[in-house]
Inverse folding.
């Protein structure tokens, strides 16, 4: 418990740093967001341009703008989107569930596949299966994710016609009953989730493999074998737990990569999550939405790391004494 | 260093690619921006072994010229990463204390942003071109290296030869360059060859989204964009540039992996 509190306090400077970086990256950028409204329109006079800038507080010194922004930030109020004047918070939060759904599903399948794979490879070290799995994973690690997405779209979406290639819902979604709705959403999720899982399989299974190999060298494993336990009992009862421990941290650390990846996947698959919203907002210079997403993803990452650290100390009492 | 067949394959491919990029005009029969609107979107054939794109340009030629972009982005951005990461890592590990705290918290902050989003964020506001792509990738991807080097330096600075050097009043700069740097060469080599692969992936993703190298300069990611636009009729526009990226990144990763195995004392046998 005290560790949890300590951990949260020590991340406050990081949190403040995150907000400062986001804010200043946005403000170093040339061109004001009001340019979108004013420069395209010949009728806008210089005065109304100024008025517009005043409305958004763009005429004040940067640090005052930052503090104004911070005051509202505490309530996740990022201001209104320049594009359609709706609060950025609402725009982000209505897209957030789709992204969380995508990432949680991906993470689930990544663990489900790569951990057993890694353990299998470690147990059968240097066998033909181990070598071929290692090579396949190594190739997958080098695959450009967006290209894999494109290939899957061509193969499964267009040539075979099995799966929809974009969005999360079909056009007639509203007329469906609950069961059909679930089926529809799952169908749309298959491609984005599988691409995201395939490109992230490699690192986790390699960590599992090398972790398992380290554990298998330990004395207590030899003892377990010496007691006459079967290989199954040794692996699942004695070795597995200690292999899985460091996985907590590694999964925590993989969160920014997953979220970063969703900016590409969501754009390619036209998936209605914050990744695509962020991409569109960046393209449209929609400051409030971009800042909201940047801080939110950074905070989610920070949170993921804290949870991983705390879980780790809770699961492994050796850490506390160290 | 043990010779490893994957290492050799990787090295040979990269050397071939560098040669192809340098001698691109000799290898190809077309020029990368030569348009031929009569021969638009042609499937691979004897004249165009990788087909043609929507403006009738030869895809093979564009891929060969695209290697120039990918390789230069890979090497230069990783050079920037090496400079920033090594510098911050050494300073942080060697001096410790407040300097270490500030640098490491800054590293933590940068690590909290998904790198790819950070890059999009910056690129969208500065003019997207090949130089800015190099700089942005270089300036956002160093935190991992800085942490790695810091850890190396932390253990190095307690070693006798550094202590003796300090005792003999060798200047810090000399300690860094003469005593520390040669001892972190192997992690640096591993990290850079893996990072080159990563930088090439990032560049192609950016160009794919239209935020990287701008036309008419050909790049692999950009050919893939037209592959996406003509996804229903021209598979060759997506398949070949993607394979080019895959094989190049794979080669750099193989080299990095082989170097890691060769230097890793724990490895009694090369696993890959």
């Amino acid at each position: 418990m005290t560790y949890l509190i300590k951990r949260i306090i020590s991340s406050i400077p990081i949190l403040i740093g995150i907000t400062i970086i986001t804010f200043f990256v946005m403000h170093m950028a040339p061109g004001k967001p009001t340019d979108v409204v004013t420069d395209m329109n010949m009728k806008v006079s210089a005065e109304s341009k100024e008025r517009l800038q005043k409305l958004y507080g763009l005429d004040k010194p940067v640090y005052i703008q930052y503090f104004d922004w911070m005051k509202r930030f505490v309530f996740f109020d990022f201001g209104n989107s320049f594009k359609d004047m709706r609060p950025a918070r609402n725009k982000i939060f209505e897209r957030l569930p789709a992204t969380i759904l995508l990432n949680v599903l991906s993470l689930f399948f990544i663990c489900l596949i790569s951990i057993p794979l890694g353990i299998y490879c470690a147990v059968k070290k240097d066998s033909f299966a181990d070598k071929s799995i290692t090579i396949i994973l190594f190739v997958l690690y080098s695959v450009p994710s967006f290209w894999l997405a494109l290939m899957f779209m061509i193969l499964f979406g267009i040539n075979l016609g099995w799966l929809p290639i974009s969005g999360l819902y079909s056009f007639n979604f509203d007329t469906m009953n609950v069961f059909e709705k679930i089926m529809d959403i799952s169908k749309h999720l298959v491609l984005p989730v599988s691409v995201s899982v395939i490109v992230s399989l490699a690192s986790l299974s390699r960590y599992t493999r090398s972790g398992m190999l380290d554990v298998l060298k330990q004395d207590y494993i030899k003892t377990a074998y010496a007691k006459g336990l079967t290989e199954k009992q040794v692996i699942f009862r004695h070795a597995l737990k200690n292999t899985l421990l460091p996985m907590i941290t590694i999964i925590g650390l993989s969160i920014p990569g997953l979220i970063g990846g969703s900016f590409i996947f969501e754009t390619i698959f036209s998936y209605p999550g914050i990744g695509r919203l962020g991409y569109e907002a960046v393209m449209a210079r929609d400051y409030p939405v971009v800042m909201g997403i940047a801080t939110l993803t950074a905070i989610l990452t920070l949170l993921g790391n804290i949870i991983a650290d705390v879980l780790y100390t809770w699961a492994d009492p050796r850490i506390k004494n160290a | 260093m043990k010779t490893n067949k994957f290492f050799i394959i990787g090295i040979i491919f990269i050397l071939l690619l560098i040669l192809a990029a340098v001698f691109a005009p000799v290898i190809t029969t077309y020029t990368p921006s030569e348009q031929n609107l009569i021969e638009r979107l042609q499937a691979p054939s004897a004249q165009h072994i990788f087909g043609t794109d929507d403006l009738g340009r030869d895809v093979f030629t564009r891929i060969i010229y695209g290697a120039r972009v990918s390789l230069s982005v890979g090497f230069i951005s990783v050079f920037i990463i090496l400079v920033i990461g090594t510098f911050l890592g050494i300073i942080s590990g060697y001096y410790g204390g407040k300097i270490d705290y500030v640098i490491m918290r800054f590293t933590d902050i940068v690590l909290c942003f998904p790198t790819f989003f950070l890059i999009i964020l910056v690129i969208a506001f500065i003019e997207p071109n090949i130089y800015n792509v190099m700089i942005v990738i270089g300036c956002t991807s160093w935190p991992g290296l800085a942490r790695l080097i810091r850890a190396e330096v932390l253990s190095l600075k307690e070693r006798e030869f550094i202590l003796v050097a300090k005792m003999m009043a060798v200047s810090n700069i000399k300690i860094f360059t003469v005593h520390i740097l040669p001892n972190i060469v192997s992690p640096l080599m591993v990290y850079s060859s893996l990072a080159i692969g990563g930088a090439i992936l990032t560049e192609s993703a950016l160009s794919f989204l239209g935020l990287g190298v701008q036309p008419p300069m050909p790049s692999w990611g950009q050919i893939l964009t037209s592959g996406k636009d003509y996804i229903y009729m021209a598979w060759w526009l997506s398949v070949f540039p993607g394979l080019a990226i895959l094989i190049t990144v794979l080669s750099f990763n193989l080299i990095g992996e082989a170097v890691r195995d060769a230097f890793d004392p724990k490895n009694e046998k090369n696993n890959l």
